[in-house]
Structure formats: structure tokens, C-alpha cells
Amino acid sequence: MSSTILLEQELTQANTLGLPCRAERFAAPATLGELRDLLSLAQDRDWPLTVLGGGSNLILPERLPGLAIQPALRYWWLESQDNQTLVHVGAGVEWHPLVMALARRGLWGVENLALIPGHCGAAPIQNIGAYGVELCDVVAAVQVLFLDTGRPVTLTPEECAFGYRDSLFKGELQGRVVITGLTLRLSRTPQPRLAYGDLAQRVTANPTPLSIAEAVCSIRREKLPDPAILHNAGSFFKNPVVPPGQAQALLATSPDMPYFPLKDGHVKLAAGWLIDQCGLKGWRQDHFGVHERQALVLVHFGGGSADELLAFAEQVAAIVADRFGVVLEREPRLA
Ligand code: EPU
Fold it and tell me: What subcellular locations does the record give (predicted)?
């Protein structure tokens, strides 16, 4: 069966920032065969291609020319290997319900990543991370198809070149592949990771993957706006990584600044704290604002455009650069 191609498809509801967008053509292939057929059709017709996930980390333009594809590969299954369990998951599976289903089965590994919006296929692109765990800690393989040839390739975690909110999919492979699936390596042996922030205080004694996932959900619900109620794309900026000398200079004037030394000697700062210190929490200009509880999140009140959002973000970054001399980098991708 071939995928239906919808013309002039409205995508405003399909991106959590709620930016107005229309795709010239849109398809949601449910099988690898359908996806391959669409890729070769786009190749034959010379249509520019955009691959969409759950739309939770994406800034869409008002019009997407060519063909927008949202893989709807929605399978997942478990494979036991001694004390480990491999989870084979299609790109179109929603991340958070999968995390909860795995946590309920008593599998350890992804519980700290509960309530992150989006589809599994997008997770490796920015190497999603929260509460001391990143996708790269649990991913065993990433399956892709090359857009030009339809060739399937399975990449090892090393080949994916994962970094903080970074991977090969944001670099060399950007715009060249569509992620079709992931393999996660989880464990039945308890391995709670509770060192981040106040997570340890929020879980009961003898925690289970489910109790940790539930604690993470409650912390996130307190701090982060629900995109179903207030449009946003989670953290709008990456936490900046600076050389040790710059961190020391900042600490000399701001001794209460949160900081996280990295293995290579660099220091990660909290962009939310820097923005907050500039007095920008709750700052609003027309259709966009800085969230009132988490300054790292920019929110869209409705009626705005991608250009306005980018201009607003530039103003926030310029104020932080002016006060602290630290450059903030955007986190969501431009489609
Ligand atoms: N802080 C403030 N004011 C703020 C926000 C934060 O002072 O408005 C301070 C906090 O008090 C804390 C520090 O900054 O001392 C760090 O804050 P938090 O622990 O909330 O984490 P974050 O650095 O703001 C990162 C991720 C989040 C992730 C949390 C928890 C990035 C860009 N963001 O935020 O990820 O949930 O850690 O691990 O790395 C996302 O990517 O969309 C996202 C929400």
C-alpha cells in the first residue's frame, strides 16, 4: 500500500510552538516500504524534503515547500539478552508513553527521561537528556535510511557522535537521512541515578523505575509549561559550555552561580539561571515571552511567527551576552 499524500496540509497543531505552518505536501508513511517509495518519488520529482518528528523541538516556517514526511513507524518490541533487554522501537513511537511502559515493566535506563515530548525518531538528533541521563547512555543502535538512495544503515552509538544536545544528525548527516528506528539497551538490575538536583529527595526508599519516572514527571510538571496549554519547545537555549577561566571569573562576581564541571575541564553553566539573573523571567513582547517559572523556555501566546520568535530569542541572548559575556545557542532546530 502506498502512503496518502495530503496537499496544503496545516501543521500549526503539529508543532508544540504552535507556529503557523502549511506543508505543500505531507505524508505519514506507516511502513519502511511506504517511506522508501516516498523518498524515491521526492527524488524523481525534485521535491525538497522535510522530515518531522513529534514537532516538539522544531521551528517551522510559514510554508514548507516540497514534501514533509512524518514517519508513522509505530512498532516496539523487547528482546531479552541475559540481564539486559534490548528494546527495538520505530521512529513514530511517542517517547513518553514508551518510557512509562518500560518503567512499568521494571526495566532500568530511561526512567529519568520521562515526560520529554516528541517521537523516538527525533530523540537521537539532539541526544535528549534530563536529570543526569542522556539518550546516548542507553542507545545501542540507530537505524536510518539515506534520503537520496533509500539505503538502510544501522549506526553504532560511537558513529552517532553524541554530545550534549548534539549528534551526527545535527552535523554531517543533517538533511541526508531519515531516522527509522532505535535500539535501546535497558537492564533488569536496579541502577537508580538520583544525583541530579533534588531528584533523590523526591523518590521513596527502594525506588523502582516507575517511582523515579513518576518523580521526574512531577518535577517537570512543576517547572515546565505543558505545550498543550501554552505553546513552547522546552529549553530554547542550550546550557552554554565555557572555558574554566571564564567560569572562574563569573564565579568571582556571582558566587551563587550554578555550574557543572565537565570531564574535559570546561564548565557548563545554566542558561536558565543567566536569563533569570537578567530579570527576564516572565518578560513578554507581543506574542512571545520568557516562561515565568523556567527562564530557559520561551513561550508563544499565539498569533506570532517564526521570525518574531527568532528576533525575540536574539534579544534575550543579547541581554545575557551583554551582562555575562556568555553566548547562548539556540536548541530547537529550524525546519
Ligand atoms: N535556574 C534558575 N532560573 C531559571 C531556571 C533555572 O535559577 O529560570 C537554575 C536552577 O535553579 C538550577 C539551574 O539553573 O540551579 C539548572 O536548572 P534546571 O535543573 O531546571 O535545569 P536546566 O539547566 O534549566 C536542563 C535541560 C532540561 C532538563 C533539565 C533537567 C538543557 C538545555 N535543558 O535544564 O531539558 O529537563 O536540565 O535535567 O540542557 C529540554 O531540553 O527541553 C529540557 C527541558
Answer: Cytoplasm
